[in-house]
Design a protein that fits this description.
- By secondary structure, this protein is mainly beta.
- It folds into 3 domains: about 60 residues, SH3 type barrels, CATH 2.30.30.30; about 60 residues, Beta Barrel (OB fold (Dihydrolipoamide Acetyltransferase, E2P)); about 60 residues, Nucleic acid-binding proteins (OB fold (Dihydrolipoamide Acetyltransferase, E2P)), CATH 2.40.50.140.
- It is built from 1 helix and 16 strands.
- The strands form 4 sheets. It has a 5-stranded antiparallel sheet with strand order 9-8-7-10-11. It has a 5-stranded antiparallel sheet with strand order 14-13-12-15-16, with no helix packed on it.
- β7 and β8 form a beta hairpin.
- The termini are far apart.
Length: about 190
């Protein structure tokens, strides 16, 4: 059986199971009462890993949680269709399918063969973790004209191979690979 975690021991970025659902702790606030006999309370800001909902809940310090059966597996992106997005587990070579809700906006950064981390709960895929940066090819951008930098406007729009558009420096040309920060959707350098 998995070990139990007391509410007072839960820290930021920890995973725990509450009401048979896995949660990720986003923030912790501990309230210690000044009166004798008062109970220490732990307020957790937590994300439900199945629905992605975020909410606050207060627990007594002694409340116990199970450790969830979570694992991260490496998988390569295969394709997407009406059933969802399909990935191949790099160890077992089984196909894992994530629906649109589990995948979020990851398709903006996924190219065929891209390796990512898929989170599994009780052996079933529940979501994916994108790397901080991805490398994508520029499929269209206007050529940078000499003298354009005088106006101080040193970025131009560029369409990438997945269809998203970002701003890139003037020296970037069509066909070049660029690094994109996944969280901010901004240019992070040449690949």
């Amino acid at each position: 059986m998995a070990s139990l975690i007391e509410a007072i021991a839960v820290k930021r970025k920890m995973f725990f199971e509450f009401e048979d659902t896995p949660f990720h702790c986003l923030d912790v606030e501990i309230s210690t009462p000044t009166a004798r006999g008062g109970q220490t309370l732990v307020r957790l800001k937590m994300r439900n890993l199945l629905t992605r909902a975020v909410f606050d809940k207060t627990f007594k310090a002694g409340d116990k949680f199970k450790e969830p059966d979570l694992q991260m597996v490496q998988a390569s992106y295969l394709y997407s269709d009406g059933d969802g997005s399909h990935f191949m587990d790099q160890e077992t070579f089984e196909t894992l399918t994530l629906d649109d809700e589990m995948r979020g906006d990851a398709l903006d950064f996924l190219v065929e063969g891209a390796i990512i981390q898929i989170q599994k709960y009780n052996g079933n895929p529940i979501g994916l973790q994108m790397p901080t940066h991805v490398e994508l090819a520029v499929t269209y951008t206007e050529p940078g004209a000499r003298g354009d930098t005088a106006s101080g406007n040193v970025l131009k729009p560029a369409k990438l191979e997945t269809g998203i558009e970002i701003k890139v420096p003037l020296f970037i040309k069509e066909g070049e690979k660029v690094k994109v920060a996944v969280e901010t959707r901004e240019f992070a350098g040449r690949a």
